[in-house]
Amino acid sequence: MKQILPFLILSAVPVLAQQGVVAGPTAGFVYDASTSALRPVRGIPGASMLGDPVSFGFDIAKVYVSPGQDSAIVIGADSSVHVFQLSPDGITERAVTGIAAPPDMVGFSPSGSSVALSIGGKVQVVTGLPGAPAVGNALDPGSPVTKLAVSDDGAYVLFATSGSVQALGAGGDVRNVMAAGDGALVAFARGGHDGAISDPSGAGVVVLRDLAGSATQTVVAAPDDGTASPVGLAFSADGGKLYLASAAAQSVVSFDLSSGSRTNFACNCTPAGLSPMGNLLRLNEAGTDPVWMLDSGAETPRIVFVPALAVANQ
Description:
Layout: E1 14-16, E2 22-32, E3 37-44, E4 47-50, E5 60-65, E6 71-76, E7 81-87, E8 90-94, E9 105-108, E10 115-119, E11 122-127, E12 134-135, E13 147-150, E14 156-161, E15 164-169, E16 174-179, E17 185-188, E18 195-199, E19 204-209, E20 216-221, E21 230-235, E22 241-246, E23 251-256, E24 262-266, E25 275-277, E26 280-282, E27 291-295, E28 302-306, H1 309-312
Antiparallel strand pairs: 1-2, 2-3, 3-4, 5-6, 6-7, 7-8, 9-10, 10-11, 11-12, 13-14, 14-15, 15-16, 17-18, 18-19, 19-20, 21-22, 22-23, 23-24, 25-26, 26-27, 27-28
């Protein structure tokens, strides 16, 4: 019997077409590195595919989309930096000043209301997304940043550097959170200052409670406990679960922070990251391979995919 592969089940929310016209249901947007384009994930329950590129009115080099799918940091081919608001009615550029150069690293807050930009060894936080972005001062973290995450209110940036994870406050103060080896990942939970750290060569997977205060640490998984080669870390929307994507295990592990139980979701892919898209967690970017996602909001969570553009056009 021919095997039927699962397709992504989408919610019926209008999508932005090339000129910002309503054009069918969408689950969000993905950056297609193979064509340097932002594409909607469109379709109906039982089938989905990548849609036509969204037109920003200029050539683009990279697009970073917020977890809420309502704003995007757009890097032009001329190295210009733009902030766009995304909505069912179209796209609107929001004026920003003070971003000196394209970021080499971007980290949105869990709801997408803030974003941290690593630029030339400094960190800038943009708050007020999607409709009223405000660019903060360039802050010096004091050490090279390898991974970063920002709280929804923009008050704290949690960042990994060589040998440790540290917290950068909005006033520029830096404090050590914990020792950590190479490959550490960081994440914030929605709406507050709880966070998480994956330290594969040291403490393992650690949950931080109240980073602004006591910063209590709880280990939820040892470093060798099925979490090898972690590439992505994210909380669920309600903060009750923590997800860790593993490249070596080709899976996503879900940690229930109340019960202490865990669930493993195997993927016929090698995850490259873990990017929230509402209740979806995207494991890779669009390109020549399918876009793989964990549908964590489904009654029975599962790994699903959107066919690669070349496959869909065959």
